[in-house]
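Review form for a predicted model. The reviewer records the input and the model, then writes brief findings.
Reviewer: anonymous (R2)
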Amino acid sequence: MGHSLLCMMGFFLLSTVICGNAEDNITHSQDADEEEEQTTSAQRDEFGVNSGNSNLKTDSTTAPIKPTVAVQPFWTQIYSGETVTVRCEIQGGEGAQWTYEWSPAKINTPPTSNEYKITVTESDSGGYSCRGRRSSSWTEWSNNITLRVIAPPEPTVFLQPSGTQIHSSVIYRGENLTVRCEIQGGEGAQWKYEWRAAKLNTPPTSREYTISGATKSDGGGYSCRGKRDSSWTEWSDNITLTVLSPSNPTVTLHPSWTQIYSGETVTVRCEIQGGEGAQWTYEWRPAKLNTPPTSSEYTIIRATESDGGGYSCRGRADRFFTEWSDIITLTVSSPPEPTVTLHPSWTQIYSGEAVTVRCEIQGGEGAQWMYVWRRGQINIHETSNEYKIITATESDRGGYSCIGRRGSFYTQWSDSITLTVSSPPKPTVTLQPSWTQIYSGETVTVRCEIQGGEGAQWMYEWRRGQVNIRPTSREYTITVTESDSGAYSCRGRRGSFYTEWSKSITLTVSSPPKPTVFLQPSWTRIYSSVIYSGETVTVRCEIQGGEGAQWTYEWRRGQSSIHPTSSVYTITVTESDGGGYSCRGTRSSSWTEWSDITTLKVTVPIEPTVTLQPSWTQIYSGETVTVRCEIQGGEGAQWTYEWRPAKLSTPPTSNEYRITVTQSDSGGYSCRGRRDYVLTYWSNIRLTVSSKPKAELRADRTAVPVGGSVTLTCSVSPSSSSGWKYYWYRDGKSYEAVTNGETSVSEGGLYSCRGGRGEPVYYTEDSESVRIDTTVSNRPVVTLYPNWSEIYRGETITVRCEIHGGDTEWDYEWETNSTIKPPNQTEYRIRSATSSNSGNYRCKGRMKSSQHKTTEWSDSVTLTVSDNKPSPVLTVSPSWLSPGASVTLNCQVEHPSAGWSFYWYKVVPDLKTYNYKSSSYELLPDGSGTAQDSYIIHGQTHTAGYVCRAGRGDPEYHTDHSQPKFVWSADVHSAASLTVSPDRVQHFTSDSVSLTCEGNFTEWRVRKFSEDGQLYSVCRRMTGSTCNIYTSKSDTGVYWCESGSGEFSSAVNITVQNDGNGPILVSPVHPVTEGASVSLSCSLKTQKILSNVFFYHNDKLIQNDTRGELNISAVSKSDEGFYKCQYSGRESAQSWMSVKVTGPSSSPVWLMVGLVCGVSLIIILLLLLYRCRRSKYSCFTRSIQSESHSPGSSTNHGVNQDETHVYDSVHPGTNNLYESVMPVEDNRNGSDEHQDVTYALIELKNFEKKRKHHKPEQSAVYSEVKTGAAGTVTTVSFSVCTEMCHFIMLQLIIGQHGV
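Model under review:
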């Protein structure tokens, strides 16, 4: 009823406003119509138009004025770049004050001008028209005048010679020429002309001029251009004039024979090169020529010897004469006789050969002859001077003769020559000597014999196998090698004629066998060539591969010949038989090579000894060693020494040598003595050479303590090496030399050492330097700023080394096991840390004034840089909202005390992306950089999602955003809601369930929060606003809708029964309104259960009779909780049934009571407000407690009905007021009874009295009523604009509660 009263008052006020506005609009509309009518009438009067008033008259005989467009100058052809004036003329309107409008619109500049000038381009082409306006009266548009603008034409220069021209731009010296400038396409225009080159002394406006009697100086380039008004054409292309002097004439003969025979015809011609186009007349010498003087040629019909002599000519054109030509001589003689010859000149020709029969005319070599041939009395079709027989046959035999013809002149027949053709012979190849086995180095003659061709002059061609070889003679001699082996054949060639190839003969050439000397001892040998004195040995010469030949042998020992013919002989060895033995064999005059020398050495039983000086077991590269060979018992003999390995380049007679050794000299060394061919045994010793050693320096500490010393130890590895003396150095200068490797120092410095031994002294390499410092008492400390032991990749941190005490200036030294080393400065700023910066850091200082004075190392500080960007974890409490309850957000970050500040965001759905993006997060009020890791939201009524992140440092480093967390509201009266069909919480697997999003939005998305804590989009494709699913166990979860405009709907629980044989509880999805009836039932997959169902409330059995349903006729808050059913021993899952509490219904009686009580309350409230203001309080607040009973427990649905909440405003400074409710237990009287008391707490605030239009959320009024089992607590806060609003709101409150 209170709502109805408020609506009636609002409707009355709205009607009053609307009606008032409507009357104003009607009045304004009438005024506008009258004004428009007056304006229209005035216009009709001005133009003389009858508007319907019978008192006005119209002069229908007056014609409208029409302007004319004129162009100045009025040329039919306008060129780009010229200036044109366009003028609008109104005939008969001269006295009027006109403004003008032009078409096209681009030329309306200025708008009142009747003319304008254009320097035209081609884009200015087109039609132009105009009209005039006087006051508000317009003339008609003028007729269009078309302006055509084209690119200016290009001129062309023409040259016109006066006489016959060689070319339009080429004339002869002395001729006349006209130069003309023509402009194509510009014929009608009045052009002026300009010429270049500057040499033209002609008027600048002349179109043409004439050159009389051209000279060389008149040659060159000519160009011109035209001018009309101020516009110029481009310059014409250059045309070049060439003035020539004609060439000297030349006399030629046709035909061009200088030798003419009596009776022949010849033409003499005068030719002038380069003067072909001119009109020439000619003059000839000698004077005997009785021919017309202008003829360029004449013909001598039957020449005689008297026509011989020299001829010359010259030409004349107008007044110009050429020079006389050179003289050409004509000789006339008696005709010659031909002669026939053969080429080649053999009278005997073989079938297949080629022969040429040639006709030669002696004395007629320069003439162009044609020839006639005959064989016997038969003519041959050949006109050249020779007749070629390519492949002769016996039919080509006979006598050949010829005559010559030139023009109509013939010689006499030549004498005949006879050609004879016979069959060709066949060659044969022979070898001398005819041995089948030939050795390299022996001499062989290969001969080609042609039977029956002995008298011919043959050339020979040879081949070995299929490869031609060079000799051309009948025979050739070869000192053979193995490459000469092969099958040899030949053929004869005479001219281009070849005989057949002969049959092949095979020549086999092998390497001459090389003899080998073998020594064969009579008993066991040590080496094949080493024999002990007194043994018997057989020396044998064997020629491998030459066994069949009759060899004789030659022997030698050293250079002395022995036993010249025997292949073997035997020796009883003495020391004198030692030496080198070799042999060779001979056959005919051919010798084999000498065999390799086989040395026979006679060994005597003496063994030498090899020794090393010095006798150190360990020798180093660079040291000098003497190797000595000593022969015991052979002191009186003259020994020479032989050493192994062979690399020793030492004189063979030396018994010792010195080596400055390298590592390559390591190895075994042996020697033996030799006296002629008498040898001792070999001795042996091993030498080991190591690389040059490096001294090693060790210190028992690196800093000298106050009053103490540091012990330095120098050594050479291996420790078994001996003979060392040690040399010490400090700061690069010699310090001392000691025989042992240990010394004590008490001064700081840079120390090194090396070892030396031998004479001259051999030094090791210097040791590595060791810095010995002197310790000072100052103590360094490493600090981190900020002091975070663990930071994250990308953060900034400073590692600082601080040394306290005194004003000493320090150089800093850092030591760390991180991969990136700090610079030697007092602090190391890491701007973007990575895991490479992780490690232990310690430092020490070194005095700048004394580099050997240092502090001790500081204690290590550990810095840990994590590559994993931290992700905060957001928790929300509670997960399910009671209407108006507050929500607490907690953001957890690793190391929460490490300087973090927190940022809080609200999730705004974006249907374009699957997951929520940071770009769609909205920062919550006062949610930027809070020091606390929790955030409380008061008065939350709808489903919402939240995220958080943390930041710290300078510049600030931010974590990732947390995963979104949600708080769900089951309120179905929100702007967006989700309904489920069938309307129940529990479903069987494979059930078809429809989820429908409702609200004033067109785009939707359904979300699910599953049991495993994952967030899903349920339907990729929705049917309108409905999502259809076929349930499975994984579909258990919380569902809600998200709209395209970023709204969340109410949320619902859906539970899927995985047990196909178990029951489900049929209970409503949405909260049940208090006082309404509800029916719960139990159902199997195949049927609804009608009887014998047990029902449980919060695990307590509440019904176990035969009924199949649990009916609650009037639901109260105590009925809220978890329900489940049981049938035949099988239980359903639990489902939460929520009860929505509402106030009692209103009635007319209660309304009247409320009005009476309301008036009384207003009086009381006004008194209270007056007192409140006097006491300078803006409001008063009373806290009233009452007991509220809300059974239930926390479940996987995230609902805890026993939570206690405190709500405060989180929007200070705004006009929003949030209610505060605190349900607590009241046990002050020690009893569990509830107090049946209704309390009302009202807070009134008076803001600005000036009327403003606010957005709904800025002046919203929030009210919430919660009804417990036995009491009601109501808290109301108001934001009002006037005292009247206080009164109306108060009446509503009183009416709703029946007070």
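Findings: The mean pLDDT is 77.
Further findings: The chain has three helices and 108 strands.
Recommendation: see findings above.
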